[in-house]
UniProtKB/TrEMBL annotation, chains A, B:
It holds the Pfam family TetR_N. Transmembrane segments: none annotated. Residues 41-60 bind DNA. This is TetR/AcrR family transcriptional regulator. Residues 18-78 form the HTH tetR-type domain. Keywords: DNA-binding, Repressor, Transcription, Transcription regulation. The keyword Cytoplasm does not apply. SUPFAM superfamilies: Homeodomain-like (SSF46689), Tetracyclin repressor-like, C-terminal domain (SSF48498). It comes from the Bacteria. InterPro entries: BetI_C (IPR039538), Homeodomain-like_sf (IPR009057), HTH_TetR (IPR001647), Tet_transcr_reg_TetR-rel_C_sf (IPR036271).
DNA sequence: GTCTATAGAGTGATAGAC
DNA sequence: GTCTATCACTCTATAGAC
């Protein structure tokens, strides 16, 4: 029961369009990572995608729309990774999941560079990604806070552990390590440092 | 034994030049903080300084030179603050000095924004401030590592404390807290979070 | 869906008068 | 030391042909 040829042909045209779009997102991710959002021109993304500037702007009517496509794709991938196959990790397992994400990022300096540069650029309220970066952080905080509270209910984490403080400091350590690692990739091990930090957390708050 | 009038007059002209220069550095600091280095035009700095673009470029032959002037001024001020009046603080006193710097920064969101945005932009090797940011971090690491080692020699800090790890994580916490504070100024207290963190360090490594 | 061509604004930097 | 005027370039976005 195969699809009639003429529909296949039409589908093939659509797929070509989808492929240009997907390739553009991948290229934009790489270039925004290398030179930041403001530092990357639409023309550069188009050239590396193999399109003219206008060809690219057919898919993304403005540079800001292209940026949101890049960010949504990254959040989608990281969300999948953090959620795990057996539902969201709770208690200390959430810190293990973060450690796994840090280890994974240690092999992707471009993506880390993109995030560090963009998160900093987008602290400016007028930046096109400002809403995204605010939601990104508060979402991460909510996710980790829920995991910690769940660990407290299970008796795995001390009931008097300061949830908000642990959440904010943990996220701060990840961000700060990324910054130092980008500058000193051979001297800083994000994985080792983050695991040393979570070890300290466990030593103090595990029950 | 006063200086002859004609030298005073000449001096007065020089002072006027110095004032334009100093004002330009202050304005550039503020604008780079608000919109990043790449996001700030020389024309904007000139306008807010009260000079034409060329008038500004008389003092700083290029935008990159203006940037280094801004960064050197900030490092000079922070270095003075951290060094203290009685020489560089050693042992746990170094963490107190950092906490004081964090508290001071909590009243200067523009300066924090400048640093966060610029440090991120400048992780790119081709950025005009790349050399500065690398030296800034390794200098800070050296300073704090020396203080910790001194504390170990004095028996104030455990001899088996992992110096490098403590240093990198402490700097990471400061950087990461700045990022979150810029996005959520009313929900995050950099001072409280940093002091909670150093409290954890002391609980584990104080002797 | 992709192209060429171009509008229209903004960029960093320079030349030369005062 | 500061100005006006201008150069050569890059940027995002649009119009319209194919």
């Amino acid at each position: 029961m195969s699809v009639p040829p003429r529909y296949r042909a039409k589908s093939r045209v659509d797929v070509s369009g989808e492929e240009s779009r997907a390739k553009a997102v991948a290229v934009a991710t790489e270039l925004f990572a290398l030179t930041g959002f403001k530092g990357t021109s639409v023309a550069a993304v188009a050239a590396k995608t193999g399109l003219s500037q206008s060809g690219l702007l057919h898919h993304f009517p403005s540079k800001a729309v292209l940026l949101t496509a890049v960010l949504e794709e990254r959040d989608r991938q990281d969300g999948e990774f953090l959620a795990g196959s057996a539902g969201p990790p709770l208690g200390w397992a959430a810190f293990d999941a973060l450690a796994a994400l840090v280890a994974r990022n240690s092999a992707r300096p471009h993506l880390v560079g993109l995030f560090v540069r963009l998160a900093a650029e987008a602290t400016e309220p007028a930046h096109p990604a400002h809403a995204w970066v605010r939601e990104h952080y508060s979402g991460l905080q909510r996710w980790l806070a829920a995991a910690v509270r769940s660990g407290q209910e299970d008796g795995e984490i001390a009931a008097d552990a300061p949830v908000g403080s642990i959440v904010r400091t943990t996220i701060a350590v990840i961000d700060g390590l990324q910054q130092q690692w980008l500058l000193q990739p051979d001297e800083v091990s994000m994985t080792a440092e983050f695991e040393a930090f979570t070890g300290t957390l466990r030593a103090r708050w595990a029950r």
